[in-house]
Design brief:
Elements: H1 10-20, H2 23-32, E1 37-38, H3 39-46, H4 50-62, E2 66-71, E3 74-79, H5 86-94, H6 101-109
Antiparallel strand pairs: 1-3, 2-3
């Protein structure tokens, strides 16, 4: 039997939308929707400082939208599939064109980084 996702309170929806309303955070979510990224990769791709990127990632993680995996000094981020807001995240991200100019520019900047 297929079960429907748990309904969210209006505050959970409002908080999720609020944290995703920032263009940088929205693009971070779009990127990590399909694969895990190291914070150092995201810093290079977005061309922002590490502290600024950490602020964005921290807000997404605090809201329960991202999960963090640590390996040594490095931190890797991906969508938290167990988030109570995963359905909301998926609906919003599905509205972003995979051919969006800014999204494609970020993907072009992606480089394999040896975070060992």
């Amino acid at each position: 039997m297929i079960t429907s996702p748990k309904k969210l309170s209006y505050m959970e929806v409002a908080n999720g939308i609020k944290v995703m309303s920032d263009p940088t955070r929205l693009l971070i979510l779009k990127l990590v929707e399909s694969k895990e990224y190291c914070v150092c990769q995201l810093v290079e791709m977005f061309d922002i400082s590490q502290p600024a990127m950490s602020q964005h990632l921290g807000k997404l993680k605090k809201e329960g939208l991202l999960k963090e995996r640590r390996r040594g000094q490095w931190r890797f981020y991906s969508i938290d599939e167990s988030s109570s807001q995963i359905s909301l995240i998926r609906v919003i991200l599905s509205q972003i064109d995979d051919e969006d100019e800014q999204f494609l520019k970020l993907l072009e900047k992606e480089a394999p980084i040896d975070c060992q």
